[in-house]
Q: What sequence folds into this?
């Protein structure tokens, strides 16, 4: 367990959201220069927004409390009520946001296959063409990079460009909650992914280890509208530079180390594949920090792990997830592997 790691000596593999802020983040937070961001006067927030916009190759960015809000701002801005949003059927924006796209934005999700983590261009083209057959009009395509439910798989830029072409001029939004994991895994700069989409969001509070916050980036006019929409949803913050300061430390200093999380996830995957050879998990396909596999009795498995001080989680009935992050070190992985080896 690294300094500031999981309390109580537990090995917490439930999510990469569980990390403690690093000493450098806490120091930056304490010393942050702040102002009222309602008036656009917080210099630390402005610095973070500029740094992210540059990193993903967009004109502007907005600091928001959560990845969910960033996704939902994109949906509300790009998809008028009564239209279809095409997205992979297991994506966060589809199944993990309290049905906000329907409840708050009034859109209907058209869920398509996302087995590989990427969308199939023909599925997107089909949905776009279906308007000629009395289907609602498609307004937006959402992709997730990395794609959590497929085990954190990154997109290729080529596949993304094909989906963009299939969407024939419609906007694309990228849920890049873990975009920097994709960057580190593939060697493709975040901006190259960003170039294929209209808007992109990333979370600072996942692999990058910041305590709070996400960013939505896109063209100037859209981000100006996103600012109004954020206010409407109660997400405008005041001296939020105290949070943005940690985010800057995360964005500037925590990306390169993701390679360690990926190597550790691969080791966990080997342990899972050794214990359950028939589960269909290929450790070689684990490209980032997430290991997902089926289990017949997840409750029993999680209880066994918990008894050994290992916390894991489920993402759907019969689907177990292990996630590596800043507060998991090699010794933690060894402990988890030993517990997996004797698991029911
Ligand atoms: C792929 C993906 N998108 C969006 C989110 C939402 O982020 P938040 O928890 O900050 O709302 C998550 C959170 O786990 C996620 O995994």
A:
């Amino acid at each position: 367990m690294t300094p500031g790691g999981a309390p109580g000596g537990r090995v917490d593999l439930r999510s990469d959201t569980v990390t403690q802020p690093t000493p450098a983040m806490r120091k930056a937070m304490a010393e942050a220069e702040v102002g009222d961001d309602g008036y656009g006067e917080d210099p630390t927030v402005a610095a973070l927004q500029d740094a992210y916009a540059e990193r993903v190759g967009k004109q502007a960015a907005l600091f928001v409390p959560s990845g969910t809000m960033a996704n939902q701002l994109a949906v509300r801005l790009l998809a008028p009520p009564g239209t279809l949003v095409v997205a992979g059927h297991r994506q966060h924006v589809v199944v993990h946001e309290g049905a906000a796209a329907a409840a708050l934005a009034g859109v209907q999700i058209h869920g398509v296959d996302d087995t590989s983590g990427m969308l199939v261009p023909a599925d997107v083209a089909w949905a776009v063409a279906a308007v000629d057959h009395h289907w609602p009009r498609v307004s937006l395509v959402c992709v997730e990079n990395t794609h959590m439910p497929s085990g954190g798989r990154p997109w290729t830029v080529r596949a993304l460009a094909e989906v963009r072409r299939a969407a024939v001029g419609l906007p694309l939004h990228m849920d890049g909650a873990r975009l920097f994991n994709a960057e580190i895994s593939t060697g493709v700069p975040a901006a190259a992914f960003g170039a294929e989409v209209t808007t992109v969001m990333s979370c600072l509070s996942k692999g990058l280890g910041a305590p709070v916050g996400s960013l939505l980036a896109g063209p100037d006019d859209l981000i100006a509208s996103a600012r109004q929409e954020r206010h409407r949803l109660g997400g405008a913050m005041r001296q939020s530079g105290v949070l943005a300061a940690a985010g800057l430390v995360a964005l500037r200093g925590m990306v390169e180390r993701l390679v360690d999380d990926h190597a550790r996830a691969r080791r966990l995957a080997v342990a899972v594949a050794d214990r359950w050879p028939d589960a269909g998990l290929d450790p070689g396909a684990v490209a980032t920090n997430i290991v997902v596999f089926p289990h017949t009795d997840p409750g029993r498995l999680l209880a066994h792990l918990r008894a050994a001080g290992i916390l894991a989680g489920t993402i759907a009935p019969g689907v177990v997830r292990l996630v590596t992050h800043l507060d998991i070190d090699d010794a933690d992985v060894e402990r988890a592997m030993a517990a997996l080896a004797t698991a029911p």
